[in-house]
Design brief:
Blueprint: H1 4-28, E1 31-33, E2 36-37, E3 40-41, E4 45-47, H2 50-72, H3 74-97
Antiparallel strand pairs: 1-4, 2-3
Helix pairs in contact: 2-3
């Protein structure tokens, strides 16, 4: 059993963290991307290019709408799963039956 004071401390810490995160998001107003240097990923830097940020937001909005659509319509989900299975089966047939031509030069 968790004591009341410990639970209050956890809840206040969580809400404080959320408040700090929201203020940082409002202040920065940019997307952070990882920067790779010499094979190691360093701290993220803010993405200030507005066209790229808008493109990423558009892709994000589309994927969320697609997820909502697939959640709302189970028949569409079945069609997508069926398409993926058919596509995988076709790729396996092509990979397993393909024989490369050998040319002598």
């Amino acid at each position: 059993c968790i004591s009341g004071s410990l639970m209050e401390a956890v809840v206040s810490t969580q809400s404080t963290g959320e408040t700090v995160l929201q203020s940082v998001e409002r202040k920065n107003n940019s997307v952070a991307v990882p920067v790779e240097k010499e094979g190691f990923v360093e701290q993220t830097t803010p993405l200030r290019n507005e066209r790229l940020r808008d493109a990423l937001n558009s892709i994000d909005k589309f994927s969320i709408r697609l997820g909502v659509f697939l959640r709302r319509y189970p028949h569409a989900r079945l069609m997508v799963v069926g398409y993926m299975l058919l596509l995988h089966a076709w790729v396996m047939v092509v990979l397993l039956t393909y024989t490369p031509e050998i040319h002598n030069h």
